[in-house]
Write a structure and sequence with these properties.
The protein is an alpha/beta fold. It has five helices and seven strands; from the N terminus they run H-E-H-E-H-E-E-H-E-H-E-E.
C-alpha cells in the first residue's frame, strides 16, 4: 500500500511539473493582450481565428482569417513569419497551442486575445 502512495505522488508531481513548464513556455511564446491592446495592433497584422469553420461563420472579428487549429499543422505556411500574428479562439486554449507551434517554427511576433472571442465586445461579422 505504501508503494502505491509513492507512485500516486510521483504521477501527481509529474503532472504538476508538466503544467507549470507548459505555462512557462506559453508565456514566452505569446503575449496576452487586452481587447484594447488587441484592437490597437491587429489591423496592421495577420488576424487569425483558430476556431472551427462553423464557429467562425457564426461570428468572428472583422478582418479575421480562419485557419482552424485542427488544420494548423498543414496550413501554418499561409501565415507570414515576418509580420505580427494576432490569434484568437473561443477561450485561449487553441490559440495558445497555435502560438507555441508557430514559435517552434520561428515566428517571433505572436499575440493572443486575452479571454478569447467569448469576451470580445468589438465589431463582429457573421453570415
Amino acid at each position: 500500500m505504501v508503494v502505491n502512495y509513492y507512485v500516486l505522488g510521483a504521477v501527481v508531481l509529474a503532472m504538476i511539473l508538466y503544467f507549470v513548464i507548459t505555462m512557462l513556455r506559453l508565456r514566452k511564446a505569446v503575449s496576452n493582450l487586452t481587447q484594447e491592446q488587441f484592437i490597437e495592433g491587429y489591423r496592421k497584422s495577420q488576424l487569425i481565428d483558430v476556431r472551427e469553420p462553423k464557429e467562425f461563420e457564426a461570428g468572428h472579428i472583422l478582418g479575421a482569417r480562419n485557419i482552424p487549429y485542427s488544420q494548423f499543422r498543414q496550413r501554418h505556411n499561409e501565415i507570414r513569419p515576418d509580420k505580427p500574428v494576432y490569434l484568437y479562439d473561443q477561450n485561449t486554449g487553441k490559440s495558445s497551442r497555435a502560438a507555441l507551434f508557430l514559435k517552434k517554427k520561428g515566428y517571433t511576433q505572436l499575440f493572443q486575445l486575452q479571454g478569447g472571442f467569448r469576451t470580445w465586445t468589438g465589431k463582429v461579422k457573421s453570415k
